[in-house]
Structures are given as C-alpha cells and as structure tokens.
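User: I'm writing a tutorial on reading structure tokens. Could you give me a worked example: one chain, its sequence, then its tokens, then a sentence or two explaining what the tokens reveal?
Assistant: Sure. Here is the example chain.
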Amino acid sequence: MPTSPNPGSSASAASNEQAQLIATFYEAFSRRDAEAMVACYHPDVVFSDPAFGTLRGESAGDMWRMLCKSGKDLKVSASEIHADHGRGRAHWDAYYTFATGRKVHNVVDARFDFSQGLIVRHTDDFNFDRWAAQAFGLPGKILGYVPVVPEFSMQQLARLQLKRFQDSRRK
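And here are its predicted structure tokens:
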C-alpha cells in the first residue's frame, strides 16, 4: 500500500532551500563574489540597512558589487541561519578596513523574504552609532549623539558613492 506524502514535507523542503540560499549568499560574500550574491536576489529585490537606506533591484546588486570590490581585507562570517514559511534570518559579522583607514567590526542581524525561490526582501540591522564610532573615530562618536542627522547624512554619502560606482560600470 503506497504511503501518503508527509503534508509538511514540501514546506520543510522550501524552508531548507531558503536557508541554503541564505548560506550560499553569505558564502559568496565571504569570497567577495558579488555576482554569486546577486544571483540569490530576485530582480525586484528590496534591500535596506542603516548605511544605504532602501535600495531596489539592480541598485541593491550594485551595492554588493561595490562593497566586494572595495573590501580588500573584508572577512565575513554568518551564523544562526534559519528559514521558515517564506521568511529567513541570519546573523553575520564583517571585519574590514573602512575608507578612513580605521578597522571596523560590524555586527549585523538580517531578515529575508523569499519569492520564486529567490530573496525578494533583505533587511540588515546594525548599531549605526557603534559602526560610525569605529569607522570615523571621535567624529563618528560625536555624530552618534545627534539623532537622525548622521544616519541620514551617511545614507546620502553612501548613495553618492554607489552612484559613482554605477556610473563607472557604465563607461
């Protein structure tokens, strides 16, 4: 007599595939392989974090291309990767030298939504004040005491840097 399929097996398989997709994304990031990272994204992906704000589609991919290209000493490790019911999460740490020459250890919690087997929403959350203090030293610490302004200003600078990168790719 044939056995009936486990009713939760397809949901479990999807969750495993989604968790594997997150792991693949961070494995690619640890190799600074932006194209492999972008391949994990849906074309209509929405990415957001405190540094860049909200980026959509190709701009999200270009951000990773820019960061991987400029992050010569970038080290990334991901842990606590979970996915369930079309949503996922991970914790990751990045160690790198910022453009100011200062060493940064960024501690990030990420959330993901999936569509059509790809990441359609990716939200990174980290302590902006802690990051600014590491990246900019005393000026970053001082800016951290001014609510809203430094994060907004950093987003403008980050987006300007991204636009320059995108323009250089089009030449």
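What the tokens reveal: The radius of gyration is 18 Å. The helical segments are 9-30, 34-38, 58-70, 128-136, 138-144, 149-170.
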